[in-house]
Amino acid sequence: MSSSWSCSRCTFLNPPSQKLTCQICLSPSTATFKAAGCSSSSVSTHSAGRWTCLACTYMNPHGSMFCEVCDTRAAPFSRLPDSDLEKDDLTASDPSIGSVFLPLQRCGSKRPANGSVDSDDQHVEKLAKSDKNDPMVLSGQLNVESCLDQKVLKILSYNVWFHEDLEVYKRMEALGELINQHRPDFVCFQEVTANIYEIFQNSKWWKAYTCSVSPAMATERPYFCMQMSKLAVESFNCSPFTNSIMGRELCLANIKPKSCEALLVATTHLESPCPGPPKWDQMFSNERVSQAKESLAVLNDSPNVIFAGDMNWDDKLDGAFPLLDGWVDAWVVKRPGENGWTYDTKSNLMLSANRTLQKRLDRFLCKLKDFKIDNVEMIGTEPIPDLFYCKKKKLRNKLQELQLPVLPSDHYGLLLTMSSL
After folding, report:
1. Domain boundaries along the sequence of the chain
2. Which of 18, 128, 180, 300 is most buried, most CB within 10 Å of its CB?
3. Do 218 and 224 form a contact (C-beta atoms < 8 A)?
4. CATH code for 152-420?
5. pLDDT in tens, 166-201
6. How far is residue 212 CA from its own chain's centroid?
7. Which residue from 246, 199, 184, 185 is spatially nearest to 221, judged by alpha carbons?
């Protein structure tokens, strides 16, 4: 009678009916090698030049940086031949070993009376209810909601800065750590480039979200706005502003959180001031004000709207933001008296060699019937540890080279927390 067999490549225990290849990695079975006249040493040779993933034990090709099964990044020592590492050293060196496996659970005392097995949807629902805060639960391409009975929503708006020459990989990695820390349900990005898109796409947090921009669309423009959602999205839409010479647009997402009313989330990057010679007056205020009014006119018919993004707004130049009846500025409501400067060349030491500029460029504007604003806060205000760059600046008629810290972006991010009534 045939028995189960263990795959020599990924260690998966295959059922007797799976005779030729492994169900997980499709590697030939040992029996297949023997039938072909190969010795057991040939099987081990097949694994030579591979590295074992610490998180799931899968043996990956030598050239790959991420595990093909669980997407865990290869640790430096994990890509060494097994003979170069002592087993005790391996297990003591990295707490992430086996991290993709869920904890063992005590078996129930009874099986279901009818012997039925949960469907995939029922299993996902049980996982969500058992540990809705575990980032490993519901990972992958499921794009299900972070909480099935969700009453509290977090929305993040972040201009990621398209300056790719300044530590873009480490900056985007730090931004990803902020996403892992705060776990927003919805994200509005501005100034995303094709390279930044690819960095995000290869990040572990990406798989928990549905993205408004396809890989093909990401290569069509130098930079763009992008929305990402853990919540069920009915549609993404994007409308360019007719008066924009910078390719600016209004991006919309119709989402329907479970146990909550429908919500329209919009983001934009309004026309930027670009003063330059000879007159230094290219501030594009009229265009910016017109785009703000156009956006609010489009959004105003919906009862629950979040309008977030880099508004490039200058209250002295542009006047008060043209909010309609029923709209509020979340920062003004929740943090009265605080300046809210999301672009600040004094507090953001990465920009300290630039001319002084302190503006509340990024905003959350809200019209809510069935939700209330709980909080709004800045994130990404701290330098990335042990990361610096050099910039030359003329001081006292001498050109000096300054060593400055690096932050995730030239803007700070804004995180809005809201809850259903």
Report:
1. 1-29, 152-420
2. 128
3. yes
4. 3.60.10.10
5. 999 999 999 999 999 999 999 999 999 999 999 999
6. 13
7. 246
